[in-house]
Each structure stands twice: as C-alpha cells, then as structure tokens.
Amino acid sequence: MNYADLFRVTLPETALEVAALIVLIVDLGFLRKAALKVRVAVAALLGVAGCGAAFLALWASAGSGYNFDEALILAQGGYIAAAQAGILVLTALTLLLLIDSDFTRHVGEFVAVVLMAASGGLLVAAAQDLLVIFVGLELLSLSLYVMTAFAKASAKSAEAALKYYLFGGMSAAFLLFGFSYFYGLTGSTNLRDIQNAIVMQGTSPLLYVAWILVVAGLGFKVAAVPFHLWAPDTYEGAPAPAAAFIASVSKVASFALLLTFGMNWLTFGGGQWVGSNYSFYGLVHGIEQVWTGLAEILLFVAALSMVVGNLAALAQTSIRRLLAYSAIAHAGYMLLGVSTLPHYSGQSASWSSLMHSVNQLSVTQDAVLYYILTYGLTTIGAFGVVSVVERATGSDRLDSFLGLHKRNPLLAAVLLVLFLSLAGIPPLVGFWAKFNLFAAVLGVSAGPVPFALVALAVAMSAVSLYYYLQVLKRAYVMPAIDETPIKAHPVTMAVLLFIAAAVVILGCFPALLQNWIQSFYPIS
Amino acid sequence: MNEFPILTLLTVLPLVGAAVALMAGKHARNVALVSALASLALALLVWTEWSRFPGIGGYGFVEQHAWVSSLGIEYHLGVDGLSALMLVLSAIVTLMSVDAANRVHHNPGLYFGLVLVLEAGLFGSFTALNFFHWFLFWELSLIPAFFLIKLWGGARRGPAATQFFVYTMAGSVALLIAFLAVFVATNSMDFWHLTLLASTGELEQLVASHLGPHAMLWLAIAVLAGFAVKVPMFPFHTWLPAAYAEAPSPVTMLLTGAMSKMGVYGLLRIALPLFGAQITQIRTPLLVLAVSTVVMGAWAAAAQKDLKRIFAYSSVNHLGYCLLAIFTLAVPAAGAASQASQAFALNGVILQMFNHGITAAALFWFVAMMQQRTGGHRGIDQFGGLRKPAPVLAGLMGIALFSSLGLPGLNGFVGEFLIFRGVFPLVWVAATVSVLGLLVTAVVILTVIQKVFWGPLANHCENFPDLQHNERLALAPVIALMLLVGLVPSLIVDSINPTVLNLLAHWRF
Amino acid sequence: MLAWTIYLSFAGALAQALLPKGRAALSRWLALAVAVAGLAVAVTGFVSGMGQGRVTFVDLPWVPSMGIHFLLAADGISRVLVLLTGLAAVAGVLFSWNIELRTNEFFAFFLALIGGVYGVFLSFDLFLLFVFYEIAIVPKYFLIAIWGSTRREYAAMKLAIYSFAGSAMVLIGLLAAYSTAGSHSTTLDALAHAGLPVSFQMGCFPLVFLGFAILAGMWPFHTWAPTGHVAAPTAASMLLAGVVMKLGAYGCLRVGIALFPHGLDPWGLSLLGLGSWRDVFALLAVIGIVYGALVALAQTDFKFVIGYSSVSHMGFVLLGLMTLNQIGVTGAVLQMFSHGIIAGLLFAIVGRIVYDRTHTRQLAELETMHLSKRLPFAAGAFAVAGMASMGLPGFSGFVAELQVLIGAWKVNPWWVAASGIGIIVGVAYTWRALQKAFFADALPTPDEHPKTGWPKFEPISWPEVTGVALLTGVSLAVGLYPKILLDTIEPAVKALLAGGVQ
What we know:
The complex is a heterotrimer.
Chain A (H helix, E strand, L loop, with lengths): L2 H7 L1 H20 L5 H25 L5 E3 L2 E4 L3 H20 L9 H20 L3 H20 L5 H32 L4 H11 L3 H18 L7 H8 L2 H27 L4 E4 L2 E4 H4 L9 H20 L5 H21 L11 H43 L10 H4 L1 H15 L5 H16 L3 H29 L13 H19 L2 H8 L6
Antiparallel strand pairs in A: 1-2, 3-4
Helix pairs in contact in A: 2-3, 2-5, 3-4, 3-5, 4-5, 4-11, 4-15, 5-6, 5-11, 6-7, 6-11, 7-8, 7-9, 7-10, 9-13, 10-11, 10-14, 11-14, 11-15, 13-14, 13-19, 14-15, 14-18, 14-19, 15-17, 15-18, 15-20, 17-19, 17-20, 18-20
Chain B lengths: L5 H19 L3 H22 L10 E9 L4 E7 L1 H20 L7 H20 L3 H22 L4 H30 L4 H9 L2 H10 L3 H16 L8 H8 L2 H33 L1 H21 L3 H22 L7 H39 L16 H15 L5 H16 L1 H26 L15 H19 L2 H17 L3
Antiparallel strand pairs in B: 1-2
Helix pairs in contact in B: 1-2, 1-4, 2-3, 2-4, 3-4, 3-11, 3-14, 4-5, 4-11, 5-6, 5-11, 6-8, 6-9, 6-10, 7-11, 9-11, 10-11, 10-13, 11-13, 11-14, 12-13, 12-17, 13-14, 13-16, 13-17, 14-15, 14-16, 14-18, 14-19, 15-17, 16-17, 16-18
Chain C lengths: L2 H16 L5 H25 L6 E9 L4 E7 L1 H19 L8 H20 L3 H10 L1 H11 L4 H29 L7 H5 L5 H19 L7 H8 L2 H26 L6 E6 L2 E3 H21 L4 H22 L2 H33 L4 H5 L3 H4 L1 H15 L5 H16 L1 H26 L23 H19 L2 H17 L3
Antiparallel strand pairs in C: 1-2, 3-4
Helix pairs in contact in C: 1-2, 1-4, 2-3, 2-4, 3-4, 3-11, 3-14, 3-20, 3-21, 4-5, 4-6, 4-11, 5-7, 6-7, 7-9, 7-10, 9-11, 10-11, 10-13, 11-13, 11-14, 12-13, 12-19, 13-14, 13-18, 13-19, 14-17, 14-18, 14-20, 14-21, 17-19, 17-20, 18-19, 18-20
C-alpha cells in the first residue's frame, strides 16, 4: 500500500478536487454580495485554472500506474493519458461556456460539481480494477445527475434529472451485478487477472450473461441502443452546460473505459503494456484466446445504435433531442471501433500477422480516441450555439434557428462548421475522424462482416446529412420570422470561434491531433 | 496541283457576304446582289478552268489537309465536271433568287444573310470530297432553309417547315449512321478512296468482314433513303408541295433550283460509286419507285389549282427522270452498247439537273411576279387572258413553260432526250411507262398556258402591269440561257462528257 | 501552375464571405476577377501542358501514418476538364450579374463549388479527390435552396442526399480498396499498382462506379438531376449540368475504370444477355440516352426539357466510357467538354435570358409571347445552341458523338442503333422546344402583327451577350477544329487505358 505512489498517480484528480473546494470557498465565502455575473465568471475561471493545474499534474505525474498487490489498479500513459487530457480540456471549455448562463444562483456549487464529475471521469479512464471502475463511474454519474437537476426553475430539468437518476441507478445495479459474477467466476477484480483466469479455465454461459450485464451498464453511460432512453429527455431538460458536459466529457471517460475493457478482454489472450512494449501473457504461455462472442455482442449494440440513432433523429423537431439522437448514432460508430479491436487466435496465426495485429491495435485504439475527442469538442461547440439561441428565442425548437445568418452571422457560421463536421463533410475534422475509424476497422480485417458494418455506418452517416441540413436550412435558407439581432457574450463567441477554428484546422491537418495523441505514448 | 484555295474562297465568300448583309439592314439586298454576282464570277471561273489543274482522281482545284486524323476526317475539296456545273447552277439560281426578292420588308438583313448562308452550304456540299465536310454543309443548308420558310412564309408555314425539317433530318441521320458503319469497316471517309475500294469490290468485302454478310445491302438502303427524301422520291416526297407552296417564292426558287439537286448529286457522288452492286440487286423496286415518281408527279400536278403546287409537283416529276436514269445505270457487266447508253443517260441526268434548275427557278420567279402584281393571287383560276395586258411577260413565261414541257430547241428537251436515249435500250418498260409522264406534263403545261394567258381577261387583271425594264433586264439572260442550251447543248455536254466517262469507268455494278 | 485555380477559387470564396453586405457590385466584379483569373491559369496550364504527359504540381505528405498525400497533378484529361471549369465559371458569373439577394454569399458558395470542382480534376490521391468531391456538395445545396425557384428546398435536399449517398458508396469502395491494398497509400498510382485481386475488383468496381455514376446522372438514379436543375438558379444549373455531372463521369473514369480494370471483365456467365458489369452499365447508359430524350420530348416546362436532355447527353458520356477503346473514351471526354459548354449555354438562355424576363417557363405560355420578335437575341442564340445540342456538324457535340458511336460500334452495334434513336429524338425535342418557345405558328406573320407594341422586355445586357458569345464561340471552335482538344485528350486516354493511371 504505497500511498505516495497513489498520491502521485491521482495528482490530477486531487488537483480537481482541491479546485472544487477552492471554488466553493471563494463563492460561498467571499462573493455572497457580488452580482451573479461576477460570481459566475470567477467560479468558471477558477474552475478552468483547476483544470489547468490538473493538466500540469498529468504531465508531472507520468509514470507506469499504481499497483496494489502486484495488480494494476490505475494505469497511466498511452491512450489513457490522452483521454484524461481530453477530459480536462473539454471540462475547461464547458466551464468557459458557463460564463453567461443564468439558470442557477448556486454557481459555486455547480462548478464544484462539474469539477468533481471531471475527476470522476479521470478516475474512470484510468481504472483497471472492477471496484475502482465502479467508484469512478458512480462519482461521475452522481455528479451528472446533480448537474442535470440544477436548473431549479425549470420543471423539465427536474424531470430529466429524475429519469436520468432512475435509469442510471438501475444500470449501475446491473453493472455491479455483472461485476459480481466476474468476481465470482474468477476470484479477482482486476481486469487482467480476470482475463487470465478465464483463459485458463475456459468460458461458461454465465460469463456471457455477466458480460451482457456489463454492456448494459456501460451502454447506458454512452447512450447506446437499447440503453439510450434517458438521453433525449436528459439532453432536453438539463441546463446547457450540463448537457454539453454529459455529451462530451462523460462520453470521453466512458469510451476510455470501454477501450480498457476492450484491451483487456477483447484482444489477445491477455496482455498489458509494460513501458512501450505490449507483453502477451497468452502468447508467452502458449494459450489460445478463447473468448469469442464478446465482441459480437458489442457489434450488435453498435449496429443498433447507428441505425436507431440516425433514423430517430430524422423526425425530431427539438434541436436538443436531435443532438441526443445524433449522439446515440455517433456512439454507435465508436462502439464499432471498440468491438473490432484485433483478435489474436493462437497458434494458427504467423508472427507477421501477429505483429500486424499489434500494430492495428494501436491504430484502432487511436482512431476511437481521435473520434471521441473531436466529437466531444464539436458537441460542446454545438451546445454552446444552442444555448445562445435558446436564451435569445426562449425555445429549443428547430424553428428558433430561422434566419440565424441575418441575426448573428458569426454564430451561424460556427453552426455551419460544427454541424457539417458532425455530418462528416470534409475538410472538417468529423470527416477525418470517421474515415480514420472506418479505415482502422477495415484494417483489422476486411472480411464481409466488418465490411458490411462499415457500409452500414457510411450509409447511416449519409442519412444523417439530412437532419443536420434541416437545421442549417433554417439558419441560412428559410426566411426569418424575427430579425432582431442575437447577441452573444464575447467570451462565449471566442470559445465557439476557437472550437470552430479547431474543427477546421484539425480537419485540414489531421496529423496534428494524431501526433498529439502519439506524444502520450512512451518513446520506443 | 493548284496552290490558291479557290474553292475555299468560293465557299467562304457567301459567308462573308452574309455577315455583311446581316448588318446592312435596308441595303441587305444590294449587298446580297454583289455577293451573288461575285460568286457567279468565281463559279464560272472554276467551271472553265478546273480541268487545267487536275489532282487525285481527276478532280481539279484539289485542297487536302488533315483535320481530325483519328476519325479519318480531312479537309478535302475538289471539283470535276459534275460539281463545277452544280456550282454554276447554284450561283445562277442564287442570283435569280436575290433578284426576285425585292419586296422583303421584314428584317431584310436576316433574310439575305440566310440566303447567302444557304448558298455557302450549297457550294460547300458540291465541292466536298470527304464525308464529314460534305455532311457538315448538307446539314448547314438545312437551317437557313428552315428559317426562311418559317419566318417569311405563307399562312401555313409552320407545318410545312416542320415537315421539311423532320423529313430531311431523318434522312440525314440514316446517312450518318451508314457512313459511320463504312468508317468502322474501312477507316476512311474519303469519297475518292472509297470509290476506288468499291470499284475493286474490296469495300464490300471489308464491310462484310466487319459488319456481317448483309450489312452492305442495309447500308445501301440507308443511304438511298437519305437521298430519297431530299430529291425527293416517291413516297418520301410529301414534304415538298407544302414546303414549296408556303415558302416565299424566291426561297422556293432556291429550294427547287439548287437544293433539290443536292439529293441527286449525292446519289451520283456517293450512292452509285459505293453501292453500285447493291443498287443492281434491288434495281427493280427502285425503278418502280422512280417511275412512280415521274408519273405521280405529273398526275398530281394536273390535279392542282395553285400555281406553286403545280410547279412543285412538276419538279417532282422532272427529277423523277433523273432518278429513272440513275437507277438504270445499274447494269452489271455492261457491253459496249450498254456502256454507250449509260453514258447517254448520265449525261442526260447532269444536263437535266442543270436545265431543270434554271427553268424551275425561272418559273417560280414568274409566279412571284404575278403574285406581286395581283396582291398574292396564285391560283390558276384567278388569272386569265394575261397576254393582252402583259405580252412580254406572257412571252417570256411562255418560253420557260415550254422549256419545262420539253419542247425541242429549249433546254428542257435536251436533258430529257438524252435520258430517254440512254434508258430505252436498257429498261424499255420503265421508259415506256415514263413517257406517260411526258404526256401528262404536256397537258399540264398547256393547261396553264391556256388558263393564264389565253381565254377571257379575268376580272382583276385589267391593270396587270407588264414587265418593267429592270425585270426584263434581269430575266433576259435567263431566257437567253434557256435558248442557248437548248440550241447548242454541246456547250455543256462537251465539258461534262469526260467527267461522265471517268465516273462510269470507276463504277462497278 | 494549375493548382492556383483551386487556391484562387477558395480564397475568392472566403473574400466574398467577408465582404460587407449591400456591396453587390463589388461582389460581382470580384467574382468575375477570380473566375477570369482561374480561366487564365487554366488556359495557360492547358497550353503549356500540350505534348506533355502527366505533370505533378504539389506532392506533400498529408497524413503520413496512413500514406495519404496532398497530391495535385494533371494529365491531358484533367487539363481539358479544368479548362471547361474555367469557362463555365466565367460564364456562370456573367449570367448571375443580376442577382441582388445576398450577392456576396451567392458568389461565396459559387466560388467554393468551383474550387471543389477544380480540386477533383487535379487530385491524383484518392483521398484528396474524395475530399474535394464532398466539399462540392454543400455549396450546391445552399445555392439551390436559397436562390432557386420551383420547389427549391425539396430539390436542394434531394440533390444533396443523392450526391452524398453516391459519395458514401465511393467512400466504402475507397476504404475497401485501401485496406485490401495493404493500407499503405491512397495515391491513385499506388492503388492502381497494388495488385488488387480480381474477385475484389469485381465487387468494388460496380460500387464505386455506381457511386460516381449517380452524380453523372445515370439512369435510373438520375431523378435528382431534372428536379435539381430546374430548381437551381441559372448559374447553379449551368454549373450543375455543365461541370458537376462531369465530376461523376470523371470519377467513373479516373477511379472506377483506372483502378479496377478487372471489374469490367466478363463474369463467365450470361444473365439476360449481360455478361459483365460493362454490359450492365452500357445498357443503363443507352437506356438513359433514349429515356432522357423521350421524356424531354414530353415536357411542358422549358427548363425540364434541358434538364432531361442533360441526362440523355450524359448517357453518351457513360456509353463512351464503357466502350473501353481509344476512340470511344476519347469521345466520352470530348463529350464531357462539349456538353459542359452547350448545357451551360442552354440553361443560360432559358434561365437568365428568357425566364428572368418572362417569368414563366411553361412552353404553353411562352408560345403566346412571340419571343422571336421581342427577344430576337434569345431566339437566335437558342437556335444556335439548339443546333449544337442536336449534334449538328460544325459544333463540338458532333465530333464527340461521332467518336462515341464509332467506339460503340466496335463493341456492339445494337448500342449504336439505340443511341441513334436517342439522337433522332434529341433533334425532335430540341426542335419542339425551339418551335414552341420562340417560333410558334399560331401568331400573325411579321407583316401582320399589330403596330401597337407588346410591353417591352428589359434589354439584353452586356454580360449576357459576352457569356453567349464565349460559350458559342468555344463550341464552334472545337467543332470546326477539334484537334485543339483531341491532341491533349488522346495521349492521356491511351495512357490510362494502357495500364492503370500513368
């Protein structure tokens, strides 16, 4: 039990918690008399500072993770560090977007909760042990429920939070139940140990039941079909910054977690990163990978999400629900990536195909990460625009966007960039993320099943253009009902422009973000 | 080989004239007259001098440049006796037409521009020796004709122009496809080269090997169909009476004087040289059609009441003789006597083309004048006794009418005589039946003369003015030409006979 | 350096977007300047490229980990099509001179579209080609949705979705080819020489070809085209029919045929007389030729006639591509150029010159307006354009169609017979439109019309005259002297057919 090590490894989380406390103290202690705007500004900036501190801590504490009894509890580096950095950046952006919101007077509390959610996210991304996973997930989820309910003046907010909470609580229960089966079957809560144990023992039907339960729990987090029913209501009811956070940060954390599961259970007969080398336990001990069927279940969920998400979005008249269903669809694409992590099947494969698979592993992993990071960025921007328009027009119907190009041309331009990116139009980053992901999936295996799924994904992506264009149509084409200009707070505009510029630049020069992600891997 | 591109100049000159006329507004007619005269001078020059500058194949004034080599398309011009005569004919008829069009009030610039473009089209198609070039001008002449009918024509000009356009286009497409097939088989679009191939039988072999055993026959039918529409041959003639009647008379002069000759020329330049053997195979049905044209044309003319329609059907009849002679030429393995007959027939065709062109144009000119003087009347029953108020008109028109009838001493006789001289020994049945045409035509013409010039003076014809001075001046050369050719046909025959013999030598039936 | 066409267009688009509102004149002149500059570069590139094979302008690694290059190059085919784009761009700007609503945004989208099109023709990396191909979709949507006419929102969405669906198919094919070839590189050269297995090519070729052919207006996926063309504002119709449909055909050639040549091999069995994908697509092309022509014959809206005629003419292009011989493919490329010019001219006359003045496109109404007297320029221009469209010799369409027919005859004479029908019907519908719109019979002769005038139309402006002269002149020049283009096209086609991309 090396507390010093634990402290080092969880430095970022600590920084965030400390920042949360500071915000609370400053807001409740010193700013009682100040105007709402000031309090919001101070709290948000303090929160951003906290994120910055956590970011630095991330760099400073780079190492090889925290072990407990020889088992890795919290991992570091590689895709995990990239995900964590992404979480911090996105949290900071969300806090910046908070700046001109007025949905609550309890500003300090809100920011504190956001920061705590972020730290939960960091934990979730790093966790390698079932219990730690659960703790992190609960920290994240509970904070999210609270955030959703924060707009006390809105009945929708309360309703959304309640639905979210009930649904979430139930899926947490499923998750825990599934975890308990895994513990029961293998006697360990560490992911790698579980994998090794099952490889040695052989599979049993109970295993698949447990896996389905786990998928239910995780699927809820990422809003995959059929665990998605909370998403439209939550996205609709939560205050804009909260919705943005749910749509971006919590997704990043959840997908990092899914990648962790995937790396440990879906690929190869057990293995782990040691420094820059991936060591194959199964290979070393000559054991074949015997888990088939896990990935197929995930694939099925992925396909369902892609289809249902896109088709349901076609019928929406509320921008927030549209974004919710589109989030479901995007989750589907990413799940496709996760579920096609390369498998290694024992003695029949050659060394070169093994090496190829190892290569593909990091490619696929990076592709999923790239996707979720850029998707998170774009979504925050989208919610930022939505919140500005909502405040000005008082409704989140699609028709509130009518004539936006006249009312605020810059905002309309940002909307154009972000939505086209979500639709997957080059040269924006959304296109590249999709291309990268699909190329990685096909790079793993170009058989008929992956090919069919990629074809489905591309087809559904084509469908999505329709509903994104519906919004853009209202902004640019259809005549306006009300032509009064819409004003947005300068900081908000600055953030939105920054996000839009990032979307364009990262799309034109995809190597930039790829290189940044690569920089988290140890030099080999 | 001649270095100076005189044929290109000849073709371009009317185009330049057209451009100037378009901008000249009221003075367009004068511009057109100048241009037409210049063209006539050039055409006469070509006519007299062509044999002095021979090129490949015996053509004169040859110009040959590559154009789109991958498609075998060359800029290849040249004339022989046949084409040169057609050039002269076109020039004369155009001049006559411009002369006759002295009452164009509406947009004269466009009118004369189109007429000159039409002339350029005629020149171009008579001098072309490569299919693409020839086809370009063949199509090019369609457009001005269509617009001339459509914009300045009579009351029912719409359907007339439509029919004219559609029929001719359909024929053109048939020609195009046939030539594409020939190109695919031989990689050549050059008339002379193809004629040589055909004369040795190689063309047929190439086509058969590339396209199948019966392809050549189908191609021949397609080509014949294309020309049959233009000449026209029964039963593809139905567009003609309406078009001739509804077009303004000066335009009809062009249509009948020159454009119809394009069809016959095409038969002589393309169909007979390339598809001689196939024509021999289907000679009998073709002869039947030709004879039908002759007889039907004459008979229908007899039934008409409108002068323009009478002369229109009469044109069909006269060109029917050309068709008769052309199909008669298809005699396989001709002996010396047959060859002589062939020569007579071919000479007759060419002469008939020229003579009919002049005569028919003149006749329509007279009709135009009569229309002008009576405010648009042109029904045969609307006139009567015109020889009293207008003796000169009666006299000159009478000469033209008798020429059309085929009176010896006038030009109309010579062509028909030579045709029958050639056809009779070869296909006496067809010739005999065609004589019917001659008889009926005689009846028609005499009826016209009787009803229009003799008999009691019609009501509104008392003040029918006679020919003015300038009109006499304009008509005199034409009438003189009719007499000259009628009395001294050797003027023309001597020049075209060598060409005739040369052509016959290379045609294989 | 031809790449400047792309850069200039996008820079121009950005500049237009940033222009202050209400400065319509400034916006127009800027757009014209950019378009003319692009044309100048295109002409210079064309002339300097004569006799050269493929010339590479830019080759930068873009995403090295996946072997994607920012590779801009041009061979003979590209140069000709870039020239076409330049001409279409200038003509499009000229014919949009009278747009007053949100002028700068109009030209911003217009120039962005042009930039995308230039990009496709100059890309020799499949990924880059795809990027430019997709970039072109969004401006089309907005151009039609905002400035269009009949049912514009529906037409714009239909067009966008069809295009996107087509490009989705291409994307799937691209991903499949990339991964099957070993995921090393996306340049056209690399993929062409990657030795893709024949069975793979048999499956990938129809997918990619179909994806591109949708944009080229192949029957039966052509339905977006007439609706879209009719709804679009004049300049957009000119570009759509003139250039954007050629993107599809170009993709069919450059990507479909060059990268998957074995996809056209015979299957070994024969289904309803069809023995290979080549037969299937040739059949669809021929059906398109005839169907497009027949439907055009029945239309009551002037612009629909032209829209369906575009479908018919593109059928010739696709047929030419399917002949897979030198002369047929050359004819197809030439037809791309020729139809681009002619379609632009036709839409310009119908849309800008006639519709903007008469405010109707219904032939029945136009019949009563005696346009040959009141709009003689339009009547004459349409007569000439109609002749060009019919394929009259002397205009560019004749040589192109001649080559396609000869190429087709070498493969299967029945294709020629059917196409011949298409040509004949083509004459019929063009003539019918000409007659009904301009030269209707039911009216008094020129000598008989009442002296009291009909209301006057707005006079023909100089941009309209310039545009018509430019396009007509080009068609005539190419028709009379096709060597200007054929000398550039033929070697490039030869190289392409000989062994994948040069």
